[in-house]
Amino acid sequence: MKLSLLYKSLILAAWTQSLVHSDNGTDTQETDSNESDSHQTDKHRISSGLMQCGEYSNEVMPNGQCRLMATLPQLEEQRCPDMFRCTDEVSYWLHENEERKQQMQDLKETISELQEELRNHRHRIKVLELQNEEKNGQNSSLEQRFHALEQIYEEANTLLHIHGSLIYDMQTQIRNLTMSVERVRRNPGCMINIVRTSPLLNAQETLHPEVQHIRNCPIDCASLYYNGVHRSGIFTVVPSLGSTPVEVYCDMETDGGGWTMFQRRQDGKVNFNRKWTEYRDGFGDLNGEFWLGNDHIHDISSQGDYCLRVNLEDWNGKHKHALYQSFRIENEENQYRLHVSGFSGTVEDSFSWYHDKQSFSTPDTGNICAEISHGGWWYHQCFFANLNGVYYKGGRYSAKGKNLLGPDGIVWYTWKDSDYYSLKKVSMMIRPRTFKPRPSP
Length: 441
Fold this sequence. Notes:
This protein has about 450 residues and is of the alpha+beta class. Helix content is about 40%, strand content about 20%. The chain has 11 helices and 16 strands. Strands 6, 7, 8, 9, 10, 11, 12, 13 and 16 form a 9-stranded antiparallel β-sheet that branches. A 3-stranded antiparallel β-sheet has the order 1-2-3. Strand 12 and strand 13 form a beta hairpin. It is rod-shaped and about 170 Å long.
């Protein structure tokens, strides 16, 4: 409404200006007379026919132009009559006004669209914020679950270690049980009850603990043979003079069987250049090369009258043996002194006549013969027989070639009448002198 009033005011001002210019000739004198009052404002009323169209006032400007101000009533149904005709300038401004109105309408529509788009953007931002909050919540939940899984993993590791320890203990127990079962299988009907030392025993009993041997315990391979074991292999025996069971290899085939083997050489896989304690306790593999141990040899050979058999084989495949009707060795306090006699066999004697009554020596005891021979034996300046020497493949060896101080092979001098021939296989085993093999059924 304000814009329409402005347009009408402009039209009215233009009309008034045209009237002033049209009457300029007749009213020159009147105008000149009133130049001093150029800033005076005159107010006029339009005729009564125009009263309903409002009021106006005019003012003459210093530059001679007329300034017209009119107020028109707001009439919706009634329209004032045209007071002047439109000039080109008024037509131009009316046209511009229509364009501005259209531009303003376009701007309103654009603003509405932008506002709608802004609302959409705000909605999308809100949705994204909610999604972000939800993701943050999920991330927090994932972190909590990750920490929970870490705790479960640590607990599982702890349980795994515990289970591993339990499995290891069970495996150890199974191995022990297996060994026990194997021992029982090897020694049917044998029960061993060893009374061990105790703080309640007096000093004398502590030094000499009792060892009780329940019936049917084998004391050597011959007793196993009498209990029905007629196959060769590894078995457990309990010597009557010993305090603990010991595993031995039993030869149940040679010359009727019943032999307890205490030494064997066959491939050179075991080093026999050992210390005193090793020869005392034993070393090697009962299925291969081994030395049973001087303590065990003493315990077995001292519980009765035993004979000794020595089996020999050279690198040409020849087999010979030496048999001695009496054999035993003393205890460690007496350096396992040898007692051997009563020779017979398929080879000449190189052992009893020269080594009988000799003490056992090893390289670490200071015996020069043991140091030269690189083994443990009953040396005597230095030997005619040494079955614990160095294993030389092929048999023959040279002192010059090896820079040796003397012969150190597996020697039985009378086989080749030489100290520089090393045998391929040898074994030493004992059994009771009174042993008699049972006839096969």
